[in-house]
Amino acid sequence: MNQTVKLSALDLATVVSGGNHRTAIERTVRTAQQLEALGYTRIWVAEHHNMEFIASSATSILIEHIASKTSSIRVGSGGIMLPNHSPLVIAEQFGTLATIHPNRIDLGLGRAPGTDQLTAMALRRNNMNGAYQFPQDIQDLQRYLSKENASAKVRAFPGEGVDVPLYILGSSTDSSYLAAELGLPYAFAAHFAPAQLAQAAKIYRQHFIPSTLYPEPYFICCVNVVAADTTAYAQLLSHSLKNLFASIVTNTRSPLSPPTLEPIYQGHRDIEAAVASMVSCTFIGDVPKIKSELTEFINELAIDELMATTYIYDEDERIHSYKLLKEALES
Predict the structure, then answer these.
(1) In this protein, which residues make up the domain named Luciferase-like (predicted)?
(2) Which residues, at least 6 apart from 270, have a Cβ–Cβ distance to it below 8 Å?
């Protein structure tokens, strides 16, 4: 295994069966505390809206809550959907976060709405072309966070001159070109949209333009991981993830539920195919299997940092999966 690969996690504060938004947030905090104890580099939470069983819509507030309950792990957004917001407001919010928690806050940025079109209209009001302004919005955000903005008429306080690392998020080749052009780290969402992963990673490295902060490209890949003491048990646990994705595909969204003996959609070929496509970057098994598959995956794509998301219903089993993943990467 490449010893230089960093290990991180993505969490959506997902509601589990029998729980609610408060318990989802509490579970995310406990996960962050456990990941910190395990030596994970960072935990990110993601902006989603109008999704009943996800509690990360007010992303910057959740980041503050997690950061205040931990002491060393980096906490950030995976991501803030920038077209939903004014760059100045995000500069102020994350400048404030980084002022309270120095050298611990990350700002991952995406261009998707993180929701359906009707909700996007409610969020963006008269700015439905925000996605097209994404490159300019990033540059505006960089300007507000820079010391060089001191002579401007519009300034961000706190924010100006505060260290807030930016990351470009994406699930297509469009974002890989943008991250390369801006000389910023790039995080690919292979945990739900893996189709263009290999192409996007190649484009990013080939077209990367060195910047002051990043003389070399830095590629993060987010994948699903379900690790257990035996591969058979990991396969069983993974049915919670697959059933959750099936509820997304069929628009019958549900909380994360206990694993069923077989996926609930088994025999429905269209659903099987759709879920299989979404979870094709999912690593399921015991430590030797996870190590073998991830070693090949990381080396093939020249991944600098692996970010794992782990949809396991039982909290203890979920934390155990994160422990086994770290063991697999370090063995």
Answers:
(1) 17-235
(2) none
